[in-house]
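BUG: 3D viewer hangs when loading the predicted structure for this chain

Environment: internal workstation, default settings.
Expected: structure renders.
Actual: progress bar stalls at 90%.

Input used:
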Amino acid sequence: QVQLVESGGGLVQPGGSLRLSCAASGFTFSIYAMAWYRLAPGKSRELVARIFSDGTTNYADSVKGRFTISRDNAKNTVYLQMSSLKPEDTAVYYCNRWGTASWGQGTQVTVSS
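C-alpha cells produced before the viewer hung:
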C-alpha cells in the first residue's frame, strides 16, 4: 500500500526558509518521479516542483531560484527546500507520486510576519 507522509511545515516570517520532507513507502521509490504541489485558499492546485528518477528537476516559474527539490533514494524521501519565502507561498503542500493518484495528507506552510 502506497503511503506518502509529509512533514516540516510551519509558520515562518517572510524571507525565511523551511524544508519539507515526504517519506514514501509501499512502492519502489527510486524508479518514480515525485512532485510537490500546493493548494492555497481560493486558488487551484499548483505543481510546485518535480524530480525524475534520474534527478532531472522542473519548477513552477513562481518558485524558480527559491525552491529546490531533491530526493534520497536510500531513505525513500523527497525534499523541498524553500528559501526567500513570501506570503504568497502560504498553502498546504502535498507530496505526489508523479502520474498517479497517490497523495500525502499535506503539510501547512504559513508565511507571515
